[in-house]
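FORM 7B: Structural annotation worksheet

SECTION A. Query
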Amino acid sequence: MLHKCVFTGRFAMISLLIAFFLIIGTNQSSAQEFCDDETVFWFENFGTGITPSSHPDIIPGSLTYQPSGVLSSEGTYRVINNTQQMPEWHFSADHTPNDIDGKVMVINGQSETFFRHVINLPTGFAPGPYASSLYQMNVNTPGTCAPNPLLPYINFRVEFLNQNGAWVDMQNSPVSSNFVQQSANPTWVLLGGVFNLPPTGAFTVTQIRVTLSNQTSGGCGNDYAIDDIKFASCPSGGPVPVTFERVTANRKGSGVQVNWSTSTEINNDRFEVERSSDGRDWQVIATVKGRGYSNTLATYGIYDAKPEIGRNLYRIRQVDTDGRSSYSITVSVQVKAEGTTVSLLNNPVTSNITLDFLSGSRSNIRVRMVDMSGRLVSTKTLSVQSGAQRLQLDIPSGTASGLYVLQLTDESGQVIFKEKIIKL
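SECTION B. Predicted structure
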């Protein structure tokens, strides 16, 4: 993949060094298709060259073109051949593959609708799914605007011109992409959505309009670069919303820890963790918010405090923002209840202690809390039922803050749990 750099006369050696650091410092994705077998109707890569320029699709009265100097003012932009338009921003080439001296639009952002392009097709757009996408980089290096930097948040609106001359949202429009985080290396993130053009009877749609808005207010951190904006057909109906890398389930104390990871997420709203003992009847035991859009490794996990005794099957249902869903592989873990297993859920503690039990039979468990000198602070007997159960133990009022020992014994007097706890 070629990266841009400037070669001019006696400064050629310096430019070669710059090119070297661009190559090793830029994380660029080579994937260019948002949908399989797409037909591209419009693609904006901002051209090539070393001279800054404005752009005709910037909405008048939104962003202000600044041809030179640092982009320190909110709501300013330029189209230029590298992203470092402020000293603390990443120094990176554009995203377009095989693009020498390729340009990119760099923006010191604020909350506004800033970009609009109309695509004309005299032969007409057929009803069905279309995709609009772009690559975006948070140009701030980690630590910029710490501890709470503003993050860019792009909104896509895709409309068609109807027979009455009015612009109408396509189905699923608008779509808001996720916040783009700061990264150690320059990282291009794919953003976008799939939009459906509904049937319009005898009327043929010949114009479609793509509009971009920034949903984050102006301030420290809302700085980004945009490249390779695209509108294309989407015969497949959209990309695979999530690529699962790994799904695991393992015993942890009295429960089961379920972990999973993804390598890509597109339009991903949430994950639903499902459990079954027979593979036929499934129960949702947890819901976890997805990242929306991500092309880097993302890890997730939940703790199932109340598994079934015996075989437990787990799978992850991914739910897209438009309601479509897909499943991960199914994993299993065997839960045996020989005696009683205990897990402490909260430590440090304040006014109570939460304990999870997994027991093969009903039993009485004695709970003792002592201070570090061995003085008994509280004692209680809990009736634990067969299977999984969560119980709460109140700490006596007036108990001083400090370090204590929590000890549980079964009916035979055997210690089944012992751990230091911190009382706040």
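SECTION C. Observations
Residues 1-32 have pLDDT under 50 and may be disordered. The first strand starts at residue 40 and ends at 44.

SECTION D. Sign-off
Analyst initials: ____
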